[in-house]
Amino acid sequence: MAGAGLDVFQTEPLEKTNPLWNLDNVIITSHSAGFTKHFNKRVIEDILIPNLKNYQNGNQPAKI
Q1: Residue 35 to residues 41, 43, 48, 50, 58: CA-CA distances in angstroms?
Q2: By the 8 A CB rule, do 31 and 6 touch?
Q3: pTM, 2 dp
Q4: Among residues 49, 46, 52, 38, which one has the least CA distance to residue 64?
Q5: For residue range 4-55, what is the model confidence (pLDDT) as tens digits?
Q6: Number of other CB atoms surrounding residue 12 within 10 Å
Q7: Residue 64 to residue 60: CA distance in whole angstroms
Q8: Contact, 7 vs 33, CB < 8 A?
Q9: Distance between CA atoms of 12 and 27, rounded to whole angstroms?
Q10: Which of 10, 11, 27, 58 is the most buried (most CB within 10 A)?
Q11: Pick from 17, 38, 21, 41: which is nearest to 30 by CA?
């Protein structure tokens, strides 16, 4: 069986009457799906610092 992990919705919070809440193959999180033990390294070392250096040197942001 397929499933889905859903973290962001057009209308938030997701209404209590939304049928997604009742599906066995759906996991709903509150904007926390992206937080892992690697989150800080990825955001700071891999994205922020290279883009800050590019900005300081007058270059375009790095592609992610």
Answers
A1: 11, 11, 16, 21, 31
A2: no
A3: 0.52
A4: 46
A5: 999 999 988 899 999 999 999 999 988 777 788 898 998 999 999 999 999 9
A6: 9
A7: 12
A8: yes
A9: 16
A10: 27
A11: 21
Q: In 1-64, where do the E strands start and end?
A: 4-6, 26-28
pLDDT reported for residue 6? 93
Q: Where are the domains of the chain?
A: 1-33, 35-64
Predicted pLDDT at 64: 67
How far is residue 30's CA from residue 5's CA, in Å, rounded to a whole number?
11
Q: Distance between CA 32 and CA 14 in Å, rounded?
A: 15
DSSP 49-63: HHHHHHHHTTPPPPP
Higher pLDDT, residue 33 or 59: 59
